[in-house]
Predict the 3D structure of the following.
Amino acid sequence: MTGEQKRTLALYYCQNVPASGEKERQDLEEKYRKSIRLFPLPCSGRLETVHLLLALEEFADMAYIITCPEGECRYSEGNKRAKKRVGRTRAIIAGIGLEEERIGIIIGSKDNQMSLSDYASIAMENALKLPSSPVHSRP
Amino acid sequence: MITGEQKPIDEIREMISPYKRILVLGCASCVAECAAGGEKEAAMLASTLRIAAKMRKENVLIKEKTLDRQCVRDFIISLDDIIGKYDVVLSLGCGAGVQAVAEIFPEVPIIPALNTGFLGETKDQGYWVESCLGCGDCMLYHFGGICPLARCSKQLLNGPCGGSMDGRCEIDPDVECAWHLIVDRLTKFGALDRLENIYPPKDWSRKQGKGPRKIVREDQ
C-alpha cells in the first residue's frame, strides 16, 4: 500500500465468522498495522449506529461490519439487525453529504465460507476505491 | 409515553448554524423509550453534527449530555454547572422538556431537535402506536379498556360505523377496528350492557380551549 493509498478501516466483526480468534486478530493487526482497527463482537446484532458514526468521526475513512450468514445467527436475528443499522447509518451520513459507501456490510455465505482475513482484504479493497475521508485532515 | 421523531438533519443544522458551542441534550425517559432522544440518540446526533462540522472545517464545540427527565426541575438544575460553557442547547426532549429547560435557563437559547408526536405505547421493537389523546375525561371503563377516541379512525362513541371488514378499519386496513375490539372485550367480561348507554358528544373543554391544563396536588 503506497502512502497516497493509505486508508484507515474500522472493522467490526461477529466472532462466529470463521478464523476470527485472538491469534487471527493479532495476525491481521500485524499485517495492516494502523490501517485497520478491529472490533470483535459476540454478535453483529450488538453493533449500534453510534459505533459506526464514532469510527467515522474519530479515525476511520470507512467502517465495515462482517456478519455470519443470514439464517445462521446464533442469537437468531443479530445479522438482520446489523444490516438495518448499517442502512440507517448510511442514511444519516448521506444526509450530511458523506458518501454512504463509507459504511459497509459483508454478510457471510453459507456455501462459500471465508475467513476473517479474507473479509478484511475485501473490505480494505473497497476502502481504497474511495478517496480519503473529508472528515480527517491527513497530509 | 410521549413519542417523538428527530427533525431532518438539514433543519437542525440550519437552526444551530449561528452557534459555536452546542450542547446536545438528551432525555432518558419517554423519548428514550421511543428511540428518538435518549442517551444513544444524543450521542448519534452529536457525532453526526461533529462529522458534518469537520467535513466543512467549521470550528465548533459539540458535546452531549442526557438528563433522566428533561421536564422535571430537579433534574434540569444539574445543568447549572455546565450550561454556561455553551451558546445553545439542542434539546432531544419532547416539547415539554424543551420549554422546561428554557424556563429554568432563560438566558440560553433552547432549540428543539425533535418533533413531538403522540401519547402511545410500545407494541414491538421499533413500533409505537398512539393509544391516548389525553382528553381529560377517561372513558376506558365504558369501552372495555379500548379508547374509541384514540383508536377509532372516526372517533365514534356510540357503536361501530359498520364499515369494518374482518376486524380491520375501512379507513386503514392496517388498523384494527376499535369497535370490534371493544365489543370483543366487553363480551368477554359479560359487560356488553355498558354499550346500551348513549354517550353525548365529547366535552373537549377538558382537553383544550382554556389555555394550558394544570394539576395541583396539595399533598405533594
Summary: Chain B has a mean pLDDT of 96. The two ends of chain B are 22 Å apart (CA to CA). Residues 39-55 of chain B form the longest helix (17 residues).
